[in-house]
UniProtKB/TrEMBL annotation, chain A:
It comes from Nitrosomonas halophila. One of its GO terms (molecular function) is phosphate transmembrane transporter activity. The keyword Membrane applies. Transmembrane segments: none annotated. Keywords: ATP-binding, Cell membrane, Coiled coil, Membrane, Nucleotide-binding, Phosphate transport, Transport. SUPFAM superfamilies: P-loop containing nucleoside triphosphate hydrolases. It holds the Pfam family ABC_tran. Residues 21-264 form the ABC transporter domain. One of its GO terms (cellular component) is membrane. This is Phosphate transport system ATP-binding protein. One of its GO terms (biological process) is phosphate ion transmembrane transport. Residues 135-162 form a coiled coil.
From TrEMBL, chain B:
It comes from Nitrosomonas halophila. It comes from the Bacteria. This is Phosphate transport system permease protein PstA. The chain crosses the membrane at residues 21-48, 68-101, 121-141, 147-165, 196-216, 222-239, 246-266, 278-298. Belongs to the binding-protein-dependent transport system permease family. CysTW subfamily. Keywords: Cell membrane, Membrane, Transmembrane, Transmembrane helix, Transport. Residues 76-295 form the ABC transmembrane type-1 domain. NCBIfam families: 3a0107s02c. It is a multi-pass membrane protein. It is found in: Cell inner membrane; Cell membrane. One of its GO terms (cellular component) is plasma membrane.
Amino acid sequence: MVNEIMQTTRPGASTSSTIKSVVNNLTFRYGDFQALKDINMVVHEKQVTALIGPSGCGKSTFLRCFNRMHDLYPDNHYGGEIILHPDNENILSPNVDPIEVRMRISMVFQKPNPFPKSIFENVAYGLRIRGIKRRSILEEKVENALRNAALWEEVKDRLNDLAFNLSGGQQQRLCIARALATDPEILLFDEPTSALDPIATASIEELITDLKNKVTILIVTHNMQQAARVSDYTAYMYMGELIEFDVTDTIFIKPKNKQTEDYITGRFG
Amino acid sequence: MNHVKNLKEIRAVISRHKRWDSLFLVAGVMALMIAILTFIALFSHMLIDGMPRLSWDFFTSFPSRRPEAAGILSAWVGTTLVMLVTAVAAVPLGVAAGVYLEEYAPTNLLTEIIEINVTNLAGVPSIIYGLLALGLFVYQLGLGQSILAAGLTLALLILPIVIVATREAIRSIPVAIREGAYALGATKWQTVADHILPYSAAGILTGVIIGLARAIGETAPIITIGALTFIAFLPPAPVQAEFPFLSFEWLMAPFTVMPIQMFNWVSRPEEAFQANAAAAGLVLVVMTLLMNGLAIYLRYHLRKKIKW
Ligand SMILES: Nc1ncnc2c1ncn2[C@@H]1O[C@H](COP(=O)(O)OP(=O)(O)O)[C@@H](O)[C@H]1O
Ligand SMILES: [Mg+2]
């Protein structure tokens, strides 16, 4: 098992790079339920960081702190900080508008969730709410985003078609294009392939690897092989705690923590 | 051997259970037939009585003492104008209230009380609305026995229907779509205007039409506020030849509506007026069916591009 993973891990994951974000003593509560407990971690710039762990351990909860998604619902409480570099801003601070955070950090959801609008309007929406109205600018940025999401060739002749007419994998790439169009600093993925077939999954994974040059990526996955294939850093979470965080190769080959090892080797539910 | 016995038992059990299937099938079909046959009987009765009276003249004549000369001109014009006022008043109010309750209202006791009340309002007898309107619109606000007063009264009556339809249409939008908009940095208002409202438009429209289809047949509240039963003139035309071309005088005009016209004719002793009543009823039923048909059409065809 361990050997298999070693082979699938991409070589050359660099261990030294700029820090994009620092998570300090992050806690989170849904009402009275403590979903995240004292998480400390760093996110490296233009690297892929994977969050793994058993279902219900708090991966999505953690990810959704990064774009203040929890602010949409009542009775949610953050503690600690998520510092964004280079401006050193704590994005969890009550003084920071969640909308500002969401404009800096984009998100791709578990199930493709295109709007019931045209392909073009889906990608353009983020630009439109930033006040971009000029058709030529919109067209240029939409094309760029679609190219970056490896979807342009497939849809360039039918930009006015409804997004729902695309296949599941294409819809997910459309959602990636939509998230990319606004040039985010961090791109969040919450199990982006769990609703897709293996071929679509492979193309999304390839895309994530390509995108690394442009944007910092944080990805939740329940699939360990996926984490091994796409990520440079991996965080293992269990029951709301960050058990181990390290370079992906280290996590998968010689984890320091016994719990991590049990999970990685499948000795654990 | 054992297996054969087993099989027999299984088959016996299945056929015993299937008896209930057939029993229910018969009961269900019968229940359905009772409902449908009653409607068909009523409708065909009206058709036989009223059909001979339906002619162009019937639509273009004012009521008259002579049954063969009487028509529904003032009634259908009145109904159309009252419905217009009802829709113009109920749609923005109902949609705004529905959007507020779904998207903006904090979850607390007050909101809960409001929600329960809105649902209960739909069950309040319509004559109560008539009484309320008589006091509020007719006397307090001095609107008199006008088209405006009637339209606002019926708007109140269908407001709960519009609110509930709006909320249901909004609620059927998946959380993921809403979160998708917010995740891109949309404000609440942008999410409502660019997503929530357009995606729930078909459902809201259906609710509005169903509400109007209910309002069109309402008699009690309209009588309560004092609609005339005999009216031989039309309200002032909304479009005029001279500046400023548009006129809102019609809003304050006295009026009658289809069900009241019908009621008036039904209560006449002459046989010939009964035929007029049946013909008016026919027109009213067809109007209602057309509105319901439109609602069904909208539901299936406007929602075609939205599937979740
Ligand atoms: N909206 C919520 N309200 C209350 N508890 C929640 C909510 N969402 C998730 N949880 C709980 O928080 C824990 C972590 O959930 P989640 O972050 O979705 O896990 P994961 O993504 O790792 O499967 C789970 O125990 C879950 O039941
Ligand atoms: Mg999750």
